[in-house]
Amino acid sequence: MSASLCILGLSYNFLTSFEESFIVFPSTGLFYPDLSFNFLRGSLPIPPPSILFYLVSGNGFSGEIPPQFCNMTSLQVLDLSHNDLSGMLLPCFGNLRSILI
Fold first, then answer.
1. Which residues contact 4 (CB under 8 A, 6 or more apart)?
2. Assuming Cys at both sites, which of 9, 31, 72, 84 could form a disulfide with 52, CB separation 3.0 to 4.6 Å?
3. What are phi and psi of 94, to 5 degrees?
4. List of domains in the chain
């Protein structure tokens, strides 16, 4: 049985970017990435649909929230606050039964 990383807590650091430029997080057993309060910039990275918690507040992500967020059926907590996001909220956010912060 191989173990996989489920929780990744990297909040309150000075991270500025990912090693490679990518839009989608790899589809692994990672259910709880906490990248809040760093110096990450650019487009909002899209996590896999199986993600449970997605915490990326306090960065410099910009642009619109990608429509792929509507496919995250397991999402329980989403925190995109304190970024530079623009545009309109996705209509699917009104249909989610999860907790949106």
1. 28, 29, 30
2. 31
3. -75, -15
4. 1-101 (3.80.10.10)
| 70 burial via Cβ count (<10 Å: 0-12, 13-18, 19+) | middle
Looking at the chain, how many residues does it have?
101
The encoded tokens of residue 99 equal 């907790």
Q: What is the pTM of this model?
A: 0.82
pLDDT in tens, the chain (101 residues): 456 778 889 999 999 987 765 455 666 677 888 999 999 999 998 888 888 999 999 999 999 999 999 888 888 899 999 999 999 998 888 776 655 55
**Is there a contact between 49 and 27 (Cβ–Cβ < 8 Å)?**
no
SS3 46: strand
Terminal alpha carbon distance of the chain: 35
